[in-house]
Design a protein that fits this description.
The chain is an alpha/beta fold. 41% of the residues lie in helices and 15% in strands.
């Protein structure tokens, strides 16, 4: 594993599986949506692939739904998520300390998540994480089909950086979608194994660095001199 660049300055963070353990709320909301669609699934282990990718894609890919049926399922998911599911969630141990150290070291932090921005901001405020981030970028709840790369470009624009191959920038996430979105934007990616990736997923899709815990992520990032 090669060293991080010494002039690294901007850090883009995924949310689910990277900053917070959102699995309980996401899985319960997927179950609710499937119940409303008449196809209940009691085994949450079968639904874990829903954590991370855009929901519309997941209902089509994993449940074989038509685009119209998937859109209905997304609406049912959001009905529960907006009231209950977004707070069935917790910050990973060590994350507040990591963010405190990174900002004190001079890094500029941004969130880039496929979760709708309206929910992302509420979650960040609820868990007192907003203060660490210069930019919070999520998907547009009224616009389907946005990719991880689209959200990353939004974060980069808000940071005043080029939308393609911005220098001194890295993406940090836990799933292949973070790695692939970073590659599309010309940004290197740090994968975190404590999230929701299957064993070997981050390496398979080409994360430049992979680390195991918030503590080892801090060690990796604080080796850099800004």
């Amino acid at each position: 594993m090669r060293d991080l660049p010494k002039d690294l300055h901007w850090l883009l963070f995924d949310l689910d599986g990277t900053l917070t353990d959102s699995a309980p709320g996401i899985l319960r909301c997927v179950q609710y949506a499937l119940e409303q669609c008449g196809t209940p699934e009691p085994d949450t282990d079968k639904l874990r692939p829903f954590i991370g990718p855009p929901l519309l894609d997941s209902f089509q890919q994993f449940c074989g739904m038509s685009p119209e049926r998937a859109a209905y399922a997304v609406a049912q998911y959001r009905e529960r998520f907006s009231k209950i599911g977004m707070f069935e969630n917790s910050v990973y141990p060590g994350i507040p300390q990591l963010l405190e150290r990174l900002t004190a070291h001079g890094y500029v932090l941004a969130v880039a998540t496929s979760k709708p921005e309206v929910y992302t901001r509420q979650i960040m405020e609820h868990f007192a994480l907003t203060k660490y981030f210069t930019v919070i970028a999520g998907s547009d709840i009224h616009k389907e089909g946005e990719t991880k790369a689209d959200v990353m470009r939004l974060a980069l624009r808000r940071l005043g950086l080029p939308e393609q191959q911005p220098s001194h920038t890295v993406m940090i996430g836990d799933r292949k979608h973070d790695v692939l979105g970073a590659k599309e934007c010309g940004v290197p990616c740090i994968g975190v194994r404590y999230g929701y990736a299957a064993p070997g997923e981050l390496e398979q899709y080409g994360a430049e660095w992979v680390t195991d815990t918030p503590e080892t992520l801090a060690e990796l990032l604080l080796e850099c001199t800004i």
